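During the reporting period, our protein records have gained a structure token line. One record among many is quoted in full directly below:
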Amino acid sequence: MSENSWPPSAPPRRPTLAVVVLALTVVACVTGLVCHTTLRSRYWAYRIARAATPAERAVYLGALCEAGDSGRWGVAALLKDARADVRQYGVLVLQHQRGDWWRARLLDLLGDPAENVRSLAAAGLAIHGDERAIPALKSLYETGDTSMAASACLALERLGTAGAQTALDELARVPADAYRRAALIDALEGIGTPECVPGLLHLLADHRPCDLPSRATQAAHRAFESLAAAGYPALPTSEPAAGPGPRTVAERAARALANITGLDVPFSSEGPEEARAEAVQRWRTWLADRSASNPRP
């Protein structure tokens, strides 16, 4: 026997039956806990949809938010409910989670038939602060229906980052119907930075009719309708003394420029071209002065 063969090497130790059983038990317990949470998430969704009081609903809503990825089944059940006031609780859970699956659901909900659900989804994308959603929002503006386009604009406005502002500026130069452009103008005005001015200046050449009320006016009308439906007496209102609102895309953009720059110069799609050119030049001068005093790094 050679010197290198002594002492003989010990054979590899095999796991004992007890170790194998212990490992299988741990795996089974972990799997059981995950499946248990997944199943409970469906139960929590059921209780959220049928809660008798806000306090009861808050308990199960909190549990679903804490479940993380294990709560997807429950959230999916809420989002499939025929009632918008139930779907909106699913959106609230989406707002608390991060990841591709959750962001994709928020993007899908920008096309929900209920406006409150769409608005919550837009807010959720802004809360996530994830600029990776911007390409999808731009696509929704260009290819979705008008309500989806408006929701995409609202999401970009609430995101409000430099990337979101750039996206809105790019969309201002894309051919679109008057109602899409109205939503785009509202978003640029809502952000209200000098970076929003170039896109609005571009839209001053669009003189197509567009008498769609502003988003703030629409929200006020819905609030009055809700109060009336609840039995409250109608509140007295008075029309503003400034005359009719914008009647074209260009006039809507001009109003937004006046609010951003503070230069309320006359602008009318039916007025003399020289007067419109003068207004455009004043806003361009304001932008040039602002850019000179605050150069970008």
Observations:
- The chain has 14 helices and no strands.
- The CA atoms of residues 224 and 237 lie 11 Å apart.
